[in-house]
Amino acid sequence: MDIALIRTFLEVAATGSFVNASDRLYVTQSAVSLRIQRLEDSLGKPLFVRSKSGAELTPAGREFERYALSLIKIWEEARQQVGVPEGYTRSVTIGAQYSLWPRLGFRWIDAMKAQMPTLNIRAELGMPDRVTRFLIEGVVQIGLMYSPQLRPGLSAQKVLEEELVLAASHETTLDAIAPDYVFVDWGPEFVHAHALELPHLTNPGLTLSLGAMAAEYIVKRRGAAYLPARYIKQYLDEGRLHLVPDAPVFPYPVWSVWRDDLDPDVRQTAQTTLAALSDRIGADQSAVIADLAEISETETIEVLGQTDAS
C-alpha cells in the first residue's frame, strides 16, 4: 500500500480538514482528495464525512485509524533500521521546537554522539502538535517541547525549568522600557500573567511568536523582550544584551517525551546525557538570576503571575 495515502489519511484525521491537511503536507487540496478517494476505493468504505465545516471520521475511518498508525510505525521502524548508515548500529530521531534546539538540543546531540559513537541521529523541527504526531507515528522517538501532549505509548519527563528573563540591547529600567519593548508570545499562561503584572507593556506594537529566535532580532536593534536565560547567557556575558533590573521572571518548564518502545540502550544514553546537560544549564540559569538579583533593588526576584516572591 502507498504509504503517502496512509500519511494523508492521518493528516486529515488529525486536522479535521482537507485544506489544513494540504497545507501541512505541502500538496494541493485536490491531491489530498484524490489520495483519500484512492484509499477509500481500496478499502471499499468511506473514511470521512465531508462537509463545509471540514471532514469527520466515519465509523470505518475510526476503526482504520488504529491500523493506519500501526502501518506507519512499522514502516518507520523498517525505514530507520534499513537506512542505518554503514558503521552505525542504532538509530534515533529527535523532534523539538525551534527554541529548544540552540543551547539545548544541539548540545544533547553532541553528548549522545560522544557517549554512543555508533548511534545515528536524525533531528526534526516542529511545534508540539507536529512533534507529537511524529511520536505517535514512530517518525520521532524522543521529543523536546514546552507543552507535552501525552498519548498511549508515550511518557513525559520534566527536563528543566526554563527561566524567561527580561533583557534589552541597552541598559534601561523597567519603567523606561515601554517604547522599546517587543512582546514575545510564550503561550497562554505567559500572556495572562504578563497582562496582569505588566499592564504598561501590553500594547507594544510588535509581537513575535518566534520563541528564542526573538533574541536574534533584539540583539541587533534597540529593543527588549522576555527571553530564555540559558539562550541569552552568552549575549549577556558579551555585553550585547543587558538584564532589566527588578523585572519579574517567568518559569517555563521544558519536557522530554519518549516512545515507550525506544531501544533500551538508546534510552539510557539519551536520559543520562540529558540529565547531565540539564544540570549544566541549570547552573547557567542560576548565574543569570543571581546577576539579576544583584542589580535589582529588591532582595528577591518576583515571579510573573505569582503575588508572592520566590
Provide tags for this entry.
Arc Repressor Mutant, subunit A, alpha/beta, two-stranded antiparallel ribbon, D-Maltodextrin-Binding Protein, domain 2, 310 residues, seven-stranded mixed sheet, single chain
Structure commentary:
By secondary structure, the chain is α/β, with parallel strands linked by helices. It folds into 3 domains: 3-81, Orthogonal Bundle (Arc Repressor Mutant, subunit A), CATH 1.10.10; 92-153 and 257-285, 3-Layer(aba) Sandwich (D-Maltodextrin-Binding Protein, domain 2); 161-253 and 290-295, 3-Layer(aba) Sandwich (D-Maltodextrin-Binding Protein, domain 2), CATH 3.40.190.10. Helix content is 46%, strand content 20%. It contains 10 helices and 11 strands. The strands form 3 sheets. Strands 3, 4, 5, 6, 9, 10 and 11 form a 7-stranded mixed β-sheet that branches. A two-stranded antiparallel ribbon has the order 1-2. Strand 3 (90-96), helix 5 (101-115) and strand 4 form a beta-alpha-beta unit. Helix 1 packs across helix 2 and helix 9 (229-238) packs across helix 10. The protein is globular and about 70 Å long.
